[in-house]
Amino acid sequence: MNKDIRNMELLSAYIDDELSPSEKAEVDKLLATSLELQKKLEDLKKVKQLAGSVERLPESPFFETRLMASIEGQKNESSKIRRWMPATALAIVTIVVMIIMKFNPGLLDQMWENQKVAITGFYKENLQPVLVAANLTNEDVFNFAFNNELPLDDTRKQYLLLGYDDAGKEFFEIRSSDQKVDRGSYKEFISAMNLDDKQKQTVDSIIGSYSKALESQVLVNEQNTVAINPNLWNLRKAIFADLLVASEKLNKIKFDRIVPEGITDAEKLVVVNTVARLKNTLGDKYIFVTPDSIFEESYLFDPVLAEKNLKWTEKQIKYKEQKVKEFTLNLKYDSTFKYYSELKSGHPFTVVIDSNICRVDIPDFTNPEISIPEIASIDPLIEQATNNIHFYAYKIPKIEKSKSEIKIEYYNDDSVYSYVVNYNLLDIDSIVQANVGTDFYNLERLKETRPFDDTMLIKYQFDRDYYNRYYSDDEFKKQMEELQKELQELSKDLKNQKIRVHSEVTKSPKK
Amino acid sequence: MNSKEKEKDLQQPRILSIDEDYSIIRQFIDGDKSAFQVLVKRHKEKVRNIIYMTMNNSALVDDIAQEVFITVYRNLKHFRFESQFTTWLYRVTVNRCKDYLRRINVRKIFSPIEDGYDVSEYSTPAENNDISRIVMDAISKLPVKLRMPLILKDIEGFSYQEISETLKCEMGTVKSRIFRGREKLKEILQPLEKELME
User: Fold this and answer.
1) ipTM of the predicted structure?
2) Could B160 and A58 be called an inter-chain contact, meaning their C-beta atoms sit closer than 8 Å?
3) Where exactly are the structural domains of chain B?
């Protein structure tokens, strides 16, 4: 070998610390006398350093899950193929395949089905009710009925959100948040309804009676699968409506304030029927959301078996004196979602993945096997009650915009204050000029009695559609800040008497 | 037991003590399939990175890595405990990469130029890091036999011994190829020296 090349190779191995002591001594000696070799050494170090600076690939959190699903799938497929192919010779196999394909053209479909079954099977393993997994309390169930949010694990940082889009079609979102989601709505409801301890117990028992029904509606497992029964939307409505019916009996005055038009007998009947049907039959179709796929499949949830498993686990834990393991999910979603069963079922999904939200729209939601068409008739009731409970519980202004005016209402000390700002009369200066001396709008009196106080400006607007419009809390906060600015401007204009304000105070509950 | 067998028996524990994967593999062979997941979890990132560096194409990484682990899964029950598990795992990885590169080269011959494989087309993570991108692209221009040892040494930090076992070639060859790889890389990067220094 050329001596120079040998020296260079030694130099390269020298920087890798891969030389024997004698070779190292030899290189040290050469380096001490040769400037050229010293320069070469620097060059090699630089190249090594550059190569080492290459950025590594980010971790793949889904890799194992996919790999295991794929292995499961292949196992299943190969055993199936083996059954069909007596492997005597390639020619025979070919002929057999040709014959099979001729008489059984659905074989490829069948193999695809098998693959699918294996993958879906993997995600269906060990599903348990979220009620148990996340230790749901009455507060959580109430929150679900009221705010459409259901925690999915013990951390309370991951939750399911149900909703309806602008066209009234069902959607849901699985969200991860950095903080615990704690709305405190149950307490607000108790205070808005002014219920005492005994009455609260009644509400508690009503909520408790839904545990069984809710148990089978949302299932989770450690493969980060969330299985949602399409009856859940109706169940939420039923729980909420049932609580309303009960609260009418508990405190009629406060109830009238929340539902000024009252609940008709027909509506009560719908509620009773819905509740009875949902409690007794729950259906076995589920929408499965997994880290990398979404599909709709039948799944028979067996409450008896689930309870048995739970008892066994508890016994094991007791036996081993282990601390109860907290159930946590790690919900991260792959942006390349796969859809199964899109061909046969009428449920193509639209999935949008954000960093911490997986939103699934169900445009063709033909809901449940248990069809309850009449439930739509209580929608206005639920909407009205939700808005009013928010209004009374959180003391936030209600803002209604129309073409000619903005109406702002807020609630304080059992009174509802109402302001109407008329767009047509905004050019107040010219009117004042034309009618000098006229106290048009009693602005002074207005100021004395009810100054437009900035403190009443909203911190949060609990808009029913807020989740439809804003994807992140930051965006929502931004929008609220803008609204606050707008209202401050309005307040300034009011103080400067630029705007005509018609106001009234309603002391008694509004009818 | 003859003396040769005795010698072999004495050798085994030495390797056992240094390879933490052995006990997990034994669990797997004894029927605990979940042990495989432990192995995957432990080694997947290194495997994925070797593939990424070799292919310079992030879109292919998980597919190839999956094939590697499926091969390992199928053959793990025949593992002979004579060498480190990782040596075998990385050898499978390197061979699978070579298969893919071969396929890509064949496709290049038969497909029109514009449809050909463009090394930087799918690369992702280094987009914000120009130097990293430039160096990756330069490495991917090295011939495979120089590229592999260089990646294993300079990026993954293998020893010459490990490289020689993984690539199944002599230590002297490893030494020579690493040197030639560095020389060639320097040559490719020469016109871009100014950008790299900035």
Assistant:
1) 0.83
2) no
3) 8-123, 126-198
